[in-house]
Amino acid sequence: MASRAGSRALHVLRCPRRLRSTAAAPQEQPGEAARPAPAGLSGLRGAPRPLPPPPAVHFGDPRAAFSSKSSAELLRGLVVLGLCALEPLVERNQQLMTLSRKLLGQQLFETLMKMTFYGHFVAGEDQEAIKPLIQRNRAFGVGSVLDYSVEEDLTTEEAERKEMENGEGAGWAPLCSRRLFSGADQREKQFRVHRGFGDRRGGVISARTYFYADEAKCDQHMDTFLRCIEASGGSSQDGFSAIKLTALGRPQFLLQFSEVLMKWRKFFHQMAAEQGKAGLAALETKLEVKKLQETLAKLGIATKAESHHWFTGENLGVSGTVDLLDWNSLIDSRTKLSKLLLVPNMKTGQLEPLLSRFTEEEDLQMKRMLQRMDVLAKRALEMGVRLMVDAEQTYFQPAISRLTLEMQRKFNTEKAIIFNTYQCYLKEAYDNMTVDLELSRREGWCFGAKLVRGAYMEQERNRAAQVGYEDPINPTYEKTSEMYHRCLDYVLEEIKHSRKANVMVASHNEDTVKFTLHRMAELGIHPSESSVYFGQLLGMCDQITFPLGQAGYPVYKYVPYGPVNEVLPYLSRRAQENKGFLKRAKQERVLLWSEFKRRLITGSLF
Ligand SMILES: Cc1cc2nc3c(=O)[nH]c(=O)nc-3n(C[C@H](O)[C@H](O)[C@H](O)COP(=O)(O)OP(=O)(O)OC[C@H]3O[C@@H](n4cnc5c(N)ncnc54)[C@H](O)[C@@H]3O)c2cc1C
Question: Its family (predicted)?
């Protein structure tokens, strides 16, 4: 439930956004950027000191892009990116690696990999080995998001078998009302495991995949993440660490939880349609409580008297309307997480825990997953490290996002420690993000978001087409970019007005980065405030990362690390799935070559 302060704020927060925007805007002079004074000092010191105008960033300057690199590294970059542009080679990279391993022997093979692909895209084998690179990048204004990138080298058959064994719950059966959700007596197709997509590694760009083995393996993953957090804390003052929730528990739980959340939201939209409010943005959709009660009674879900207490909490129904956040709080205000999975029971009209049919062992598995998340978040808080929860497939993502939100509520009280990830290739991205942000406003915690376009497009589309549900992805690349910029704009406005939100623009797209810089300047968000971060993968788009870093913008590389042999399966897949992107890395190769030539001509190669 929201706090009292949250409920007081509710009235103000429900005012239209634009209105609040202008009302709350500080009086700024053109070219000045207001920096929030430290709490308690503003009154003593008077008006905040104006900051210098934001620094200019020159993305096309090869010298700025590669000044952190030795000439040997430039040459390696040229060779590696050049090879990555050769499609037949990328297609057959696995066979070629197996052959080279046979011909060269393990040791020579590892040396060759370190001199080429592994050396370019991976920071090193362990936390000690990656320190020099992290320190060097830091000296050039670039931080690190540590990402232990070991991936099990399973065959497709093994991956499918694991997924089928662990994806379906033995005792689970839905309790949803048939009248509420069409086809609700069956699991929704999207949230069922399908053998053909059991190997979740296919059609994914640059993302590691975890398969559930047992609880001990999940503990092992948690220990790895803990070491990552500790290394991030040890290596800088403002570190980030990335985690994936599919590594921390049985995916079955995420599937089922996602299904319930989606059904609950669908139910809300069905009720909105009944009231003639279909098609509005999530935050603009408000159900009239009276009509809602009538519909619930008509559907036989609850009599008016029975549903009365659903809408009489501290927040619910004060304005005679219920929005999606009020609706969601029906699930969580009366429960703790372990009892979260509630759906209306048709006979009683009451919310009942969906988990009641989990076996004892399954219930325990779910609790352990939540405990692991808690351990990680606590450690991150202690170490002053921010934790990014990666976004994954749409059939897991509602649960991942919701669990992350629960961590944010708990840990983001003073500043954004936990960051959720929003995939802008999703048709629902704007609704998802704005609803979460609105919740942070109402409850007074600090919103933290990483915005990405999304890594699972090909897999998502194939699965939706083959299994037979609506494609969750925007129809075109342009729509995805539009969505990205719309979401980004929304958070940037929030930062301007409350200075409580943080966002990471995780993209290699120069236009998106330029759009961000432009909007930051317009809104008076200065890079030194450290509320807008940028993120790119190691070995990719240094011409974006380093000029940003040197101009003083907080920018980070996702830094994969791990033993050569164990990182190679991930790297090999990444090369294949990124082949379109790598082919387009032409600009990077041109810049690398131009910097190499400059050093050669000026005699500064060494
Ligand atoms: C630091 C960092 C962290 C990341 N974390 C995550 C994460 O947690 N979860 C995750 O899913 N991804 C993550 N990614 C990957 C990211 O989602 C993108 O796949 C990748 O960055 C490419 O997008 P872009 O904006 O960099 O480049 P661009 O080349 O501008 O965009 C390519 C992307 O656009 C989208 N797209 C392409 N064609 C179409 C089309 N026809 N219709 C609709 N959309 C289309 C796809 O998402 C594609 O990946 C991360 C990336 C970075 C750099």
Answer: Belongs to the proline oxidase family.
